[in-house]
Amino acid sequence: MKILYATSEAVPFCKTGGLADVAGSLPAALAAEGAEVAVVVPLYRRVRERFGDQLTFLCYDYVNLAWRHVYCGLFALEKDGVIWYFLDNEQYFDRPDLYGYMDDGERFGFFSRAIVRMLDHMKFWPDVINCNDWQTALVPVYLKDDGVREERFRSVRTTLTVHNIEYQGRYNPYVLGDLFGLDAGWVEDGTLLMDGDLNLLKGAVLCADAVNAVSPTYANELKMAYFAHRMESVMRQCEYKLFGVLNGIDMDRYDPAKDPSIAAAFSTEDMSGKDADKAHLQRLVGLREEPHVPVVAIVSRLVSHKGLDLICEVLHDMMKLPMQLVVLGKGDKKYEEFFHWAAQQYPGRMAVRLDYNEELSMAIYAGADLFLMPSKSEPCGLSQMIAMRYGTVPIVRETGGLKDTVHPYEAWRDAGNGFTFANYASNDMLHVIREAVYLYKDFPDAFGRLRKRAMECDFSWARSAGEYLRIYAGVTGQVWPAPEAAPVEASPAAEPVSVEEAAAPAEEASAEEKAGPFEEPVPAAETVPETVAAEKASAGRSVEKAAPAGETADVKAEPKKRGRKPGTKNGAKKEPARKAAEKKAAGETKKKGTAAKK
Ligand code: GLC
After folding, report:
1. 130 CA to middle of ligand 1, Å?
2. For residue 12, is the peptide bond before it cis, meaning its omega torsion is within 30 degrees of 0?
3. With 70 as the cut, is the pLDDT of residue 246 above it?
4. Whose C-alpha lies nearest to ligand 1, atom 7?
5. Do the Cβ atoms of 210 and 166 come closer than 8 Å?
6. In the structure, what pLDDT confidence band is assigned to residue 487 with cuts at 50, 70 and 90?
7. Is 483 a residue whose pLDDT tops 70?
8. What's the gap in Å between 444 CA and the centre of ligand 1?
9. 3-state SS assignment for residue 397
10. Ligand 1 mean position to 378 CA, how many Å?
11. Are 40 and 70 in contact (CB under 8 A)?
12. Average pLDDT, the chain
């Protein structure tokens, strides 16, 4: 399976939000499962400055965007089994910031156009292009547009991942031809038209072969007016191809047992380091060094949908509880001013840093006891997962990915991994904060067990990567895992692994995937329905037939001059023994996780 992941930002190269974290870790997880994966990103100024010396220039070409005939350079580097492509055009991308320019529409129109046109120069012809948010939303549209004239584009399937439906790429329909080089028919038939605007995201939702939201609950919420920013009817119309796949986090990067960025390491076996981290945090931000008072933390952009109004309403009631509060983040002036003022009312008990600071955020995840995220909406949310990994128990509102990752504490059967409330109401939030604070103070053993359950949750990418691959399989008609991977034990290079041994972990893994990593299974509706997959499979096959292999071969043969890249992933087929061993290890890890939870 060949996958091209198209994104406007990715860690470690360029980041403004959660999309970059996902794009920085999902591709490698897909590659680890045996897929061939490449990522394509714009060559922004900051990428050139920080990584320029690691990039290899491959070639350049000209891309037609309406009446423009624009230079596009292609750079690459290889990392963790993934090929990273960077599209260069200094006029569009040699700027200090990633977004926020008046010509963003043209910039990302160019990026999407160039992704499709530069396919000819990439290492492999993709089976699927996974687009992300509005910036790459025109890719499915251009593929269809070009596919009318050029047969080889018809074999490429597309998926769209929605990280946040709030941003849709809306423009005056008047610019369609001049800016994006598309025929008026795209607006006239409604594909790119919404509420009188040209709407790029809508086009992608309609044209992509599958759409996935970044959590199962968010996939459902997208069908509701409250969450969908006017896209609810389009999402309902496309329900048949809508999935929800929970994001993961990089479990190696965020590991309290070996994270060099925190003051003291700790793990579920030995939590003493956590006490040291707490004392360190209290000193760092000027809170009183009180080991038995719970520190509640907020690390967030200070914007309305993060639910900060609830905190503003009951802050004084919160501060009547025996707790401390630390806030890190910046954003809207009204929240910045409120928190700045509030901190002065509670010296030694409340600390506020109006900043985006990676180092301090790690000190907070490691040193705090409770992590507050009362979001009005939250497509997935990564911070609650990071907090849990560091034993900082989350208090969240039940929305989007927060609902999927945090399960409420139930004292009577000693279950759950955090605290939750459902209504967007400050008193409901206050109620669970009180419950959490007193559990910490009055029942330290129960709190310790709750904290341990939070730390043991499996938020690794491996599981979500499997779900992505099943979606890709559904839209391409390919079988995944690839059948060639099966005769592992027949290979002379393989370790002497018995048939049962080789097969068992894979079975366990898929059972685990179906059940989800937590105590409660992911609702069945959100897993890839077999029928859709089957329908897609047949659709994919028929289209593939229409696109002769020769076409693709021609394209691939053309840019021979760039030569072969060393260490390119030809995947599991070539290394069956390694793959079997990895699968086995993965199976065992998953088994361990499940057992521990019980
Ligand atoms: C967006 C969402 C956030 C999600 C992230 C990664 O930033 O707001 O909830 O975790 O994308 O998908």
Report:
1. 16
2. yes
3. yes
4. 18
5. no
6. low
7. yes
8. 33
9. strand
10. 7
11. no
12. 86
Q: How many residues does the chain have?
A: 598
Tell me how far the alpha carbon of residue 29 lies from the centroid of ligand 1, in angstroms: 18
CB contact at 8 A, 255 and 389: yes
Residue 379 CA: nearest ligand 1 atom is 9
Alpha-carbon distance of 145 to 161, in angstroms, equals 21
**Three-state DSSP state, 487:** coil
pLDDT band, very low/low/confident/very high, at 581 (cuts 50, 70, 90): very low
Task: Give the residue from 287, 440, 297 showing the smallest Cα distance to 349.
Answer: 287
18-32 and 461-476 are packed helices; what angle lies between their axes, rounded to 10 degrees? 80
Contacts of 265-274 spanning 24+ positions with Cβ under 8 A = 266/366, 266/391, 267/455, 268/391, 268/452, 268/455, 268/456, 271/391, 271/448, 271/451, 274/366, 274/367, 274/390, 274/391
Both tokens assigned to 400: 């989007």
How do residues 440-481 score in pLDDT, each as one tens digit? Answer: 999 999 999 999 999 999 999 988 999 999 999 999 999 988
Report the alpha-carbon distance of residue 116 to residue 262 in Å, rounded: 43
- Assess whether pLDDT exceeds 70 at residue 281: yes
Residues at CB less than 6 angstroms from ligand 1? 17-19, 22, 163-164, 214, 247, 378-382
CB within 8 Å of 18: residues ≥ 6 apart: 163, 247, 379, 380, 381, 382
pLDDT for the residue 486:
52
Q: Which atom of ligand 1 is nearest to the CA of 382?
A: 10
402-438 pLDDT tens trace? 999 999 999 999 999 999 999 999 999 999 999 999 9
Stretch 12-30: mean pLDDT, rounded?
A: 95
Structure tokens at 447: 């709190």
More confident residue, 303 or 572: 303
DSSP per position, 379-396: SS-SHHHHHHHTT-EEEE
CA 68/CA 179 separation, integer angstroms = 9
Residue with CA nearest ligand 1 atom 6: 18
Span 113-133, average pLDDT: 97
- If one residue of 382, 384, 403 were mutated to test the ligand 1 pocket, choosing by the most ligand atoms within 8 A of its CB, it would be 382
